[in-house]
Amino acid sequence: MLKSLKTIIYVLFVFGLNACQPTQSATSTIDAKNFDSFWIWGEIQSAPYLSKAKELYILQGEIRYSKQRRSSILTPQGVSILKLPHQKIWLVFRTHHLDWNEQNYQAVFKRLEHWNNHGNQVQGIQIDFDSRTNNLKEYALFLEKLRKELPAHYQLSITGLLDWTNFKDQNTLNILKNNIDELVIQTYQGTNTIPNYPEYLKHVSAMQLPYKIGFVQHGLRQNNANDFDDPNFKGYVVFLVRSKT
């Protein structure tokens, strides 16, 4: 009886001790200084973490169909050409359709050369297109054509939506695998984190594509979903916002 009483007291003591320990918060705020790869969508105020960045994804324009001109037009956007020799540079082009004309391709490629001629480590281009999941085959075929047009020494990156992780058509996934160098999955919409993004990321490895995880600055990060034991996982990219520094 005495031994049993001691056991009960010990268990209660350990339970009480653990209850007093501080618990790690389920979420944390995305702090740019803890990362080294960023999207720059406009004039972002200089910060120490930018000078230490290893990789920058810089918006350069959007492609959309102009009813007035009856043609697909590339409209320049984002920052002008800079000399950033210490960072790897990706040029980002937002497209609203997949029916590019020859002028669109040449305008993108000229922009690449201009940045390259300024002494930058230009990795390639990133296409930002919000394809519906059931239209991914059409998008994959567009990327296959773009890869053939793109000079071979440049890489091809794309952004992706969380819902794509549910896509299972292997033929389409093979087209993507053979033509893109990375997929960056966005865990946010606008400047807000999608609350259940970890549920989608559980399926991303099944796509068998090289991928990165995209966060938004000042957004939320689920601390129980930070570890990616996957050879296809290549790191994080943070979308910088201008409302806060």
Automatic annotation (TrEMBL):
SUPFAM superfamilies: (Trans)glycosidases. Residues 1-19 form the signal peptide. InterPro entries: DUF3142, GH. It comes from the Bacteria. Keywords: Signal. The keyword Metal-binding does not apply. This is DUF3142 domain-containing protein. It comes from Acinetobacter tjernbergiae DSM 14971 = CIP 107465.
